[in-house]
């Protein structure tokens, strides 16, 4: 999404109090609905790093920054072919960006998606939506972390069902754009200090024209050591974004796929 269009959408949300409604699909509009994005007003502004990213608000107590061995943006290490939408109403597998991604080796896990913010006082803020594409990850490792989850979040019951003696939860947020484009995790690998989750954005043929953040909560079998988490998310045919729990909100000025 171009920056000026992002700002125009943001202005519309602020003025109307709700996101735009309707659907967009490669020149074939179809009916749809959207949801209001809610945010807190006490977010901190980030500082720009040398790699063109911003570190903004967010919890920084549950992991380390991105490992030196990983680039912030790289190319997915597997073949991706975009399926056609002709006609769009026939649809396509929205997980085509993940189709050829290996599913093993992986810890056992389950996941649940949420459109909009699922965390109470951290993560993405709508006020920052015009700054670029944003990513956030955090770990929930004990029962006290349940206080960080919004009571009205659709996935709150899923998170509350975690047995923290043997499980933990990785929360991943991305923004901004259609709530029909959501993060999905395909495998969770154990690392020396925790986990690394691999996944992609869904890309359906028809998507809503709202402006929102998106969340996936991943409940996984707890490894012996869980000091950090890294996420590698494929967001385009030539683009994978790497970010870590504990580094706050990460902003990419380059919004191209």
What does this protein look like?
- The strands form three sheets. The protein has a seven-stranded antiparallel sheet, with no helix packed on it. A five-stranded mixed sheet has the order 4-13-12-9-8, with no helix packed on it. Strands 1-10 form a two-stranded antiparallel sheet.
- The longest helix is centred in the first third of the chain and has 14 residues, at 3-16.
- It has two helices and 14 strands; from the N terminus they run αββββββαββββββββ.
- With 257 residues, the chain is mainly β.
- The protein has helices at residues 3-16, 156-160; strands at residues 23-24, 47-48, 53-55, 73-74, 109-115, 133-140, 167-177, 183-190, 194-201, 207-208, 212-221, 228-236, 239-244, 250-252.
- It has one domain (3-39, 53-252).
Any descriptors?
257 residues, 5-stranded mixed sheet, disordered N terminus, 32% strand, mainly beta, 7-stranded antiparallel sheet, 2 helices
The domain tally reads 1
Helix content: under 10%
Q: Which class best fits the helix and strand makeup? A: mainly beta
| Main sheet: strands, sense, barrel | 7 strands, antiparallel
- Strand-residue fraction? 25-35%
Low-confidence stretches: 1-63
Specify the number of helices: 2
Strand order of the largest sheet: 2-3-14-6-7-11-5
H/E series:
HEEEEEEHEEEEEEEE
Overall mean confidence score, pLDDT: 79
DSSP summary, beta strand count: 14
Distance between the termini: 10 Å
Rg result: 17 Å
Taken from the alpha-carbon principal axes, the silhouette is globular
């Amino acid at each position: 999404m171009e920056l000026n269009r992002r700002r125009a959408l943001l202005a519309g949300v602020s003025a109307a109090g709700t996101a735009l409604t309707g659907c967009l699909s490669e020149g074939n509009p179809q009916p749809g609905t959207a949801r209001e994005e809610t945010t807190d007003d006490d977010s901190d502004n980030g500082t720009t790093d040398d790699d063109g990213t911003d570190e903004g608000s967010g919890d920084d107590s549950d992991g380390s920054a991105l490992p030196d061995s990983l680039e912030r943006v790289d190319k997915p290490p597997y073949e991706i072919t975009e399926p056609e939408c002709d006609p769009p109403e026939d649809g396509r597998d929205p997980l085509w960006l993940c189709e050829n991604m290996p599913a093993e080796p992986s810890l056992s896990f389950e996941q649940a998606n949420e459109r909009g913010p699922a965390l109470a006082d951290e993560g993405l803020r709508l006020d920052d939506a015009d700054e670029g594409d944003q990513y956030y990850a955090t770990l929930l490792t004990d029962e006290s972390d349940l206080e960080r989850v919004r009571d009205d979040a659709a996935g709150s019951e899923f998170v509350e069902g975690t047995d923290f003696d043997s499980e933990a939860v990785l929360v991943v947020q991305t923004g901004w754009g259609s709530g029909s484009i959501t993060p999905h995790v395909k495998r969770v690998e154990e690392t020396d200090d925790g986990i690394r989750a691999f996944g992609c954005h869904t890309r359906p043929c028809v998507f809503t024209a709202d402006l929102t953040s998106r969340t996936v909560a991943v409940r996984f079998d707890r490894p012996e050591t869980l000091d950090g988490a890294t996420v590698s998310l494929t967001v385009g045919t030539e683009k994978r974004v790497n970010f870590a729990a504990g580094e706050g909100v990460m902003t990419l000025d380059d919004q191209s796929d």
